[in-house]
Amino acid sequence: MALTTRGGGAGGGDPAKAPSASDPSLGFLTKRDTEVKLPRATRVKNKTPAPIQITAEQILREARERQEPEIRPPKQKITDTHELSEYRLRKRKEFEDVIRRVRWSVSAWVKYARWEEQQRDFARARSVYERALDVAHRDHTLWLKYAEFEMRNRFVNHARNVWDRAVSLLPRVDQLWYKYIHMEELLGAVANARQVFERWMAWRPDTAGWNSYIKFELRYGEVERARAIYERFVAEHPRPDTFIRYAKFEMKRGEVERARRVYERAADLLADDEDAEVLFVAFAEFEERCREVERARAIYKYALDRVPKGRAEELYRKFLAFEKQFGDREGIEDAIVGKRRFQYEDEVRKNPLNYDSWFDYIRLEESVGNKDRIREVYERAISNVPPAEEKRYWQRYIYLWINYALYEELDAQDIERTREVYKECLRLIPHKKFTFAKIWLMAAQFEIRQRNLKSARQILGNAIGMAPKGKIFKKYIEIELYLGNFDRCRTLYEKYIEWSPANCYAWRKYAELEKNLSETDRARSIYELAIAQPALDTPEVLWKV
């Protein structure tokens, strides 16, 4: 049975099936003609290993062996002058074409100039370098190649001219100066080399430039010149390493006093430098080598006082080793204390609110017995106030104040300072949120010990007014009772009961006071008032009494 296509003639086909009509760029081709046919992926049916295995190394070796030899152009032999001139003309044209395409490429210019140099046409090579400098005069490698070309072919004056221009244009490129000076040294022109060094030093180079100048003078035995350069060097670069280098230079020549003066200048000038530790260690070791043990010890102690604790770890280690070698028992103990002091400083620096570290640090200083240092540590410790006004954060902190006050009273025996410590502590505590009865009572007892009863009463009165607590009432009543002021005791008991009417202890003690004074009616009235209270903490005790 015949099949007919829908739509009849050539114009009735589906537009999607006529790509040439929809895509004019294909011309008479169809999409099928332009499709890229990929080979079908072969499916491996037999996956068992082959009897003969081959490694990746064998594959690479076979590929290398079967590689065709590289095709190289034939060597050209020039037999006469005419062929040589044609060859040169062709090569120059090639180089000029390359330069025209990549004018900024320094390597293209250098290749051109080297080819001209091989042809022994130095004027043309020089011309190529000069043209290159018009393009890239800031490229120091181009100047180096140019100057080396002049030196290689023994054009000394031309080379000097190139070096002069190079260091004038690029004075911060040290390599140009080094090469220039090296050339003058090779030529034996020491005066010219020295003059170049002076020009370089006028640009204030880094330490490497100054060191090379000093070594240059020492190579020719000019010690005084080298010393003068060192003086300029340390003035230009006042750093510990430059002074140490200068002192070592003097030591090599046996000038001990000069070396000591250099170290002393450095210690005066750089005592607060961040690398001062290195300087002091070198100074102390210098004195050790000179058998000046006391001088070395004084330097170590001076340094430990001046250098911040965070940067003095190496200094402490050296000092401890020094004392073990040269010191007596006391000196070794001092060094060990210094090391422990450094450890505590590190701890409190990392966490200033770690009060246990402060207690250990204070205990260490108190064992040494230096009053100024003890007070300094106490002041630093109490300056770290807890960040939150909650009593649990203050419970360890408040003992710093207590210990400080006891130290001033008992060890330092400074009464006024003790009084100031107590006042400052009481001023600092936020009594509206919480208080410490212990501080109030200790301050009052201190005043009693100084026979200043008025101040003690004032402190306890302030405590009752600002932050009343049962412990304060009890102690205040005990003091007044001991002094025989029974009227004051009655007043205090009344305030105590007024502040805490449910406290059976206060009622009972008040009644006992009256009973002991043979005031039976007053005692009975107090008991009557107590049992009439709407709420009591321990009523059974009160009824029993």
UniProtKB/TrEMBL annotation:
Localisation per UniProt entry: Nucleus
GO cellular component assignments: post-mRNA release spliceosomal complex; precatalytic spliceosome; Prp19 complex; U2-type catalytic step 2 spliceosome
Principal localisation: nucleus
Location of region: Disordered: 1-33
Biological process according to GO: spliceosomal complex assembly
Family: Belongs to the crooked-neck family.
Protein name per UniProt: Crooked neck-like protein 1
Organism annotation: Panicum virgatum (Blackwell switchgrass)
Taxonomy of the source species: Eukaryota, Viridiplantae, Streptophyta, Embryophyta, Tracheophyta
